[in-house]
Amino acid sequence: MAIQARPAPPTGAEAAGWARPTSHVEMLWFLSELEARTDRMVTRSIGRTEEGREIVAVFMGDPVLADSTGLSRSEKPTLLVTGTIHGNEPAGKEGALQLIRELVLESDPGLLARINVIVVPSMNPDGAEAGTRENARGYDLNRDWITAETAEVGAVLERLVTRYWPDVFLDVHNGGALPYHLTYQTTLEPGADPDLVALARGPIFEFLEERLTSREMRMFWYSGPAFDERRGVWYWRTTEPLPRKQHSYAALQDMIALLFEIPEGHPPQLAAEAARESMLGLLEFLARKGPEVRSAVVEARRRTLHSPPTQVHLALQPTPYRETEQFFVQPRPENGESRASSLVEGENRTRFVPTTSRSAPWGYAFDPGLQELARLLRRHGIEVERLHDATTVPVERYRLDRVIRSPERYQRHRMTELRVEVEAGIETLAPGSFLVRVGQRGARLIPQLLEPEAVDSAARWNFLDSHLPEPGVAGSHLPLYRLNANPGVPTSLLP
Ligand SMILES: [Zn+2]
Q1: What is the pLDDT of residue 219?
Q2: How far is the CA of 383 from the centre of ligand 1 (A)?
Q3: Domains of the chain (ranges plus CATH)?
Q4: 247 CA to middle of ligand 1, Å?
Q5: How far apart are CA 118 and CA 155, in angstroms?
Q6: Which of 137, 205, 215, 397 is most exposed by smallest CB count within 10 Å?
Q7: Which residue would you say has higher pLDDT here, 226 or 472?
Q8: Minimum mean pLDDT among 308-312, 334-338, 378-382: which range?
Q9: Would the pLDDT of 174 be above 90?
C-alpha cells in the first residue's frame, strides 16, 4: 500500500474557516492535488462557461472508467452527481469536494470497486463566483434541461448524460425546510417509470434516512410544511414537476432521478457535511444493491423501448398520498435566534396526477423547414429520420385555434401557448420531412417535446413560432403531425 507522503489538501472553504465558499481556482487546485495522489480518479474538462471558466467532471472508480465504451459495458451502476447548479447554493459543491477526497484517499476502497461515479462539483462556476442563482447570462440552469441553450447545461447534457446515460442522476441544492438536514425528492413526473420511482421512494429513501439518523441528522421529503387555512391543517408541499427541471428530465430519460436539498439556515460547514453524508449514503446503497439497481434500470429502459407509455400527460395537479405523515414544523429564525420545532401530522401533497392526457402516437412527422426542432431532438439523443420521397399517409393534424404569447420574458423567451384540436386527415409529406418514431430510447421524452400543449413542448419554447399558420383560419394546421402507424417508406437517419 502506498504511503501518503503529503497530507490531504483542504478545500478553499475549509482553509478559510468556512468564512466563504471554495473559489473556482481553489476547486481546480484541490482536484489536481487529489488527482496527483490517486489512480482512482480522472478529471476532465467538459466545456467552458459563458465567462470561459472550465466545467470539470471527476470520474471515479476502481478501475476508473472515463469513456463511453467502458461505462456502457460496465455491469456496475453509474451515478452522475451535479452540485451548485444554482451558484448561490454552495452545499452541493462543498459536499462533493469533500466526498471526492474521502473516496479517493480515505474511504473503504471496496466502494469504488462496485460503482462508477461521475461528479460535476460545480455546474455553475460563473454564478458561484458572482454569488448568483443564475449563470452569467441570467439563465436559471435548472430550467434549461429542455432547450439546453446554456453552455453549462449543454456540456453536461452532451458530454455526460447522452454519452454515458448514467443509471442514477443526482442534483444537490440548498433548499427545503429546517430542522431537516436533507430534504429529498425523486421525480414527480407521472410519466416516469413506476419501478424506478418506487426504488427511489422506498429503499433508497429508507437507507438514507437510517444512515442520517445514526449521525443525528434528520431527513424528509422536499420541500416544506404549509398551513391550509381553509381546512385548518398542516400539509407538506413541494414544487411543480416540469421537464425543464433536472429531476423531471432525468426521469423522462429513464434514469433514477434524485434531488437533494440541504435546508438553508445550517452553518455552512454543517450544510456541506449533510450534503457529503447524504451523497456517501447514496453511494453505499448503490454499492450494496448494484445488481438490483442495474437490473431495475435495464428493465425500465427495455419497457420504454418495447412497450412505451400509451398516454402523454399534458396537465397535472398535486394530490395527497393516502397516508398522512408526521413532520417537524420550525418557524423562521427571529433576530438570528433559531426557534423550536414542533412535530405535527398532515397530508403529504408531493404527488402529481394527470388531469389531461392524450394517447401516444406511433410517431411524429414535421416539415423539412423545422430543422432547429430536429437539432433539438438530436441533442437529447433522440433518433430522427428524413423521408426520401413525398409520402401520402393518414395523419392526425393539429388544427390551430389560438396562439397566446406570454407578455413576460422567461429564460430569454416569450413562451408560446397553442390551443389546438386534433383532427384525422390525409397529408402528403414533402421529401425531406422529418420522422420521429416514439418507440425508441426517448419514448417518455419525445411526446413531451412534440405534443404542442405539453408544458415544456418545443412549441412552447418557440421552436414553431416562425412556422405557425394563421390561427382560426379554416384549414390552418401546424406543420407537425401525429402518425398512428409506420408509413413504411425509405428514410435515412440524421447523424
Ligand atoms: Zn437550487
Answers
A1: 98
A2: 32
A3: 12-353 (3.40.630.10), 360-493 (no CATH)
A4: 12
A5: 14
A6: 215
A7: 226
A8: 334-338
A9: yes
